[in-house]
Amino acid sequence: MGSSVRRNPVQQRSVERVNQMLDAAAALLDEGGYEALSTRAVAARAEVPIGSIYHFFRDKRGLADALARRNLERFLAGVERRLAGVTHWTAMVDLIVDEYVEMKRTVPGFAVVDFRENKVVAESLAAHLARRIAPADAADLIRPMTVAVEAADALLKLAFRESPGGDPHYVAETKELLRAYLDRALPH
Questions:
Q1: Which end of the chain offers a freer environment for a tag, N or C, measured as fewer CB atoms within 10 Å?
Q2: pLDDT, tens only, 104-162
């Protein structure tokens, strides 16, 4: 998982317990933001001994990092589902933005802790697009995807500051900006 995580769960029971703790952390983030997140509060909400938290996580940052990693995995799985059968990159851009907006609206804790690592998101999306547009090498797509992800991140944050459900005008403007930029930046 990462340096702030002590160990990865291996047995199914441990995986379930870690998910229970991450679900509790996500609920606390929704209720009170990052300040409300503490190992003690997560243990109480998850109804697990505090030692269980420290068995897997070094501290509250470790919990937040693991939640961000889980969010990234969910996002990429959702993108994969949405992109099934889609072959044109402009439709892909819209569907990727739609997946992010949907997660922002529905996934507990995502409004406070999304992915934390835009670079990983950009690299993953470059690989997704490279498999679908020809000819494309994922390495050639990393720089344009990094620019696109950073721009989308800023604009979508604005959309959700303006409206709890994401201002639809800013969401539409985000898609338009990404399509215009990527039309120039992606190989044709």
A1: C
A2: 999 999 988 888 889 999 998 888 888 877 666 788 889 999 999 999 999 999 999 99
Rounded to the nearest 5 degrees, what angle is found at the Cα of 71, between the Cα atoms of 79 and 164? Answer: 90
Closest to 151 in 3D by CA, of 185, 188, 128 = 185
The first and second tokens of residue 184, run together, are 């120039």
What pLDDT, on the 0 to 100 scale, is given for residue 7? 61
The answer to whether residue 2 scores a pLDDT higher than 50 is: no
Q: Output the DSSP codes for 27-59.
A: HHHHHH-GGG--HHHHHHHHT--HHHHHHHBSS
Q: Which of 139, 148, 156 is nearest to 181 (CA)?
A: 148
- 3-state DSSP call for residue 5? strand
Q: Which amino acid is at 166?
A: G
Residue 184, Cβ density class (10 Å: 0-12 exposed, 13-18 middle, ≥19 buried): exposed
Mean pLDDT of 56-67: 93
Q: Which amino acid does the sequence have at 129? A: L
Helix (H, G, I), strand (E, B) or coil at 9: coil
CA–CA separation, 140 vs 138, rounded Å?
Answer: 5
From CA 128, how far away is CA 186, in angstroms rounded? 14
